[in-house]
Amino acid sequence: MSPDEGLQRALDAAGDNSVVCVTAGRYRLTSTLEPRWGSTLHFERGAILDGSRPIAQWTRSDGQWVATGQRQSFAASEGTRCGPNPAACEYEDVFFDGRPLVRVLDRGQLRSGRFYFDESADTIYLADDPTGHQVEATVTDTAIDAGGARNVTVRGATIEKFAKDGVITSEGWVVANNEIRYVHSTGLRAYGTTRVTGNTIHHTGNLGILGDDGTRLVFDGNELAHNNYLNFDLWHAGATKITGSVGTIVRNNWSHHNTGDGWWFDWDNSDTVVNNNRFEDNTRYGLFIEASFDTEIRNNDFINNGTSTKWGGAGVWITTSKNTEIHNNTFDGNRYSTLAFVSTDRGSSQRYGQRETTGLHVHDNTFSLDEGFVGVPFGDTDVYASDARNRFTNNDYAVPDRDGTWWQWTSPDGNDHTAHTWAQWNRAGQDTNGSLSTNS
């Protein structure tokens, strides 16, 4: 089908278990698409689902450009935290030649590159002259929503400029080889047994991917970049956040330059495998495992994640999680800590038992540190107990100063979370078969 046809009508006419081929062109959606059960939506190269409409009529007033009749309005999602950018909780976006303008909440703050939307008066204001440029406003909240339909495949689409989400899946979905960009909230919400392969998800306002209560979720060969560009609170923002999943596989992905975490498993995830990914230049943690169980992290690269701010980053951060194995990874240039783990009171899981940091085994990794440390920055001292079984073996470290204190552990005199030299780290029973070299 082509852009001059009704896409939803075509999906309904094709029915369940059908294949719909969407030809190149820009499809400006005024409502969310709901595929039929078992259907495949195949988008040819150049097929774009667009949640915006052009604004053609502008007038000049008091040195600003004014567009009236703008009745679009979207409520913030429940529980959303905007943190450092209150305007992020306003979901009506404006694009100037395809790029988002910065929203201001006071007309007096209007200047080049910004817009002001007086929703009570249905009026948008610009400082920049729109003459000869394409100005678009978001009018639709979500591109594709499962709406209960299972076993759907979405392949090859470009999805952009939606007020809330790009794609919301259900059981048995496949989301493959799509580009999702410039949606205000979340690029992809993955549920059930969704497979997410070969996608590029970038410049989402809040999260690239959110996965909730999934079983055997698969994320393979995706690129996530520059997400949370609207600077939402990091409690729920960045590249990816997965909660309550069982048997999730994360492999062959590249997560980079996201504001927040490269990948976050939060709360009662179990049997997770993170294999052969690259987590690079994310502003907080490359990989964050929180209050979860039975995770294997192997053959990944953790490069230049975090900031030098206290608690501001790590290649990998483990908090109150049981039975985590970290092996055959490369860590280089991560800030504030290269690999940190803590245990705090997070209660007990009805399904998995006590949430605690026990059974951590870090082995056969390569660490290159320029600053920070490996070890325990704070939290309960029970992480040091012998029955906690938290141990480091056969890791290779390169540090600027061989006599420096690059490891944090309990000290022989009982002081908690003390900075250690290599010799002290070994005497504490860690990496007794590891190696140390200089990287300067």
How does this model look, in words?
- With 440 residues, this protein is mainly β.
- It folds into two domains: 53-138, Golgi alpha-mannosidase II (Immunoglobulin-like); 142-438, Single-stranded right-handed beta-helix, Pectin lyase-like (Pectate Lyase C-like).
- It contains two helices and 48 strands.
- The chain is globular, with a radius of gyration of 24 Å.
- The termini are far apart.
Rg: 24 Å
Name the poorly predicted regions: none
Average predicted local confidence, pLDDT: 94
Percent range for helical residues? under 10%
CATH C-level name of the largest domain: Mainly Beta
> What is the tally of beta strands?
48
**Strand line-up of the largest beta sheet:** 2-4-16-19-22-25-28-31-34-37-42-45-48
Q: Provide the domain count.
A: 2
Helix/strand class: mainly beta
Can you identify the CATH superfamily of the largest domain?
Answer: Single-stranded right-handed beta-helix, Pectin lyase-like
**CATH architecture grouping of the largest domain:** 3 Solenoid
Q: Could you name the CATH topology of the largest domain?
A: Pectate Lyase C-like
Q: For the terminal residues, how far apart are their CA atoms?
A: 60 Å
Largest sheet: 13 strands, parallel
